[in-house]
Predict the 3D structure of the following.
Amino acid sequence: MIADEMTPAVSFQKVARHFGAVKAVDALDLDIAAGEFFAMLGPSGSGKTTCLRLIAGFEQPTAGTISIFGERAEGVPPYRRNVNTVFQDYALFPHLNVLDNVAYGLMVKGIGKAERLKAAEEALALVQLPGYGARRPGQLSGGQRQRVALARALVNQPKVLLLDEPLGALDLKLRENMQEELKSLQKALGITFVFVTHDQGEALSMADRVAVFNEGRIMQVGSPQEIYQRPKTRFVADFVGSSNVLPPDFVQRYAGQRRWGSLRPEAIRITRETGSDAIQARVSGVSYLGAATRLALDTEGLRLHASVPSGTAVPEQGDAVAFTFNRDAIHLMDEAP
Amino acid sequence: MRSDRSQSAPLGLKIAATCGLLFLHLPILLIFIYAFTTEEKSYQWPPPGLTTQWLAVTWNRPDVWEALSLSVRVAAISTLVALILGTLCAAAVSRSRFFGRETVSLLVILPIALPGIITGIALRSAFALTEIPFSFWTIVLGHATFCVVVVYNNAVARFRRTSGSLIEASYDLGADGFQTFRHVVLPNIATALLAGGMLAFALSFDEVIVTTFTAGQQQTLPIWMLEELIRPRQRPVTNVVAMVVVLVTLLPILLAYYLTRDGDQVAGAGK
């Protein structure tokens, strides 16, 4: 089958997956473009992992249709889908060495030993683990296992690669390295990557587009910039980038429209002058974050967070201060008041 | 904190431990010695003389061979039945959730907790009710009830230690159900099955009580030994057979112990 340019890699139409009374995924519409690095972001229990398992074929939709490169996927078992998964716990086969683990997919497809081992060696080189083939998974570190799991999936040349919380078990430094590496790997291979995460930083830094999940539904889909700067709902504003959610009354006073709004912490400026447009507030919390200091400001029965860059004067807890912001920085959300 | 390794145990404890071990194992040694006695009517101590003639006599007794062959066949078939049913049952209980799962688990283990005599009587009346004549297969059925438990227990413990995502990973990589069983499930549970199978074989091989209720006229080796003890002639033949039984059942149990001893490394999960 030749997929034309416009055929989405994965397409969900009115997809639902209910477990009894629990609606893990409900009335979901989503198109993931071919060659895209797509992130599914959400808190635990929001349905993002169920979505991934629906693409992999481990779950079947209760209603709706799923197609992968134009082909209907419902009823197709996982082993007949051209989709591979990097599991959260890596799921390396403990009884096989690294090379046989990577070659497993080719082995069950009946590819000759010499050919599949060569392909497995190449895949290991691709994830920067050349020469590790003879080791057992138990002898590898977490980061190395992650790479083996990646090689084991990629050796099958999947059309879509699914990654379930791929960096969750790694420490911070390793996670940052892997983020960059995954991203450049994806660009080099041109394979559609779909990854699930609860870490908004990870989703924003790696993905071309992000879908924010909550309670089995998608709240918003868009580029990281859109998601971060123009959240559509209070949930997205709150979950992504810790924006300040502004109630309709507040927004009406400063932006002229009675709508829910959001304001990013870095848009708030602490000021000494007490001009007419400055808002009086009391500092109720100060947390030092390295590159910036985060202030909690109480004003008009509202708590706002402001981010003050390092190197500028920082007020103390309990101080009375005034702050301003550019009126244009208030983003109006779609959500009705 | 009295776990000082260099300090040896008190003398009294050493003596008690030695006596306990002797009490357990000397009688077995006695059976071995009586296999070589020259006196055939009663067990006289000390043996008046030693001879190896009973080995030859035993070798030439057709009833011994018949009983041995029946026991081996029964044990082999019961073990095979237990391996298949026990593994399937363990897989169902540990892999999926269904109504009555805990009950099934309990019912499978129950036969080994029940006294053999109850199992025996129950089976006998069941056979009588359904008018099934006693045969080789009724013995196998009786033995399978407790052999399944041993295999099930071993398999279920191993399944529990094996990460569930391994099977999903195998499907994901293109292996169908059979390939997944052959290349992922079986290698991960193989040593547990071997150990369970060997224990099941050993259990079946020396089983008396259930067999007396399900065997009819046929004699398995342990039943033959019981009958033989009552007769006054060629008594040491029984001892020779006993010696063989000890060796035949001990070796698989030792091997089973050895195989599952470091099983933790075999079935470790992904993390």
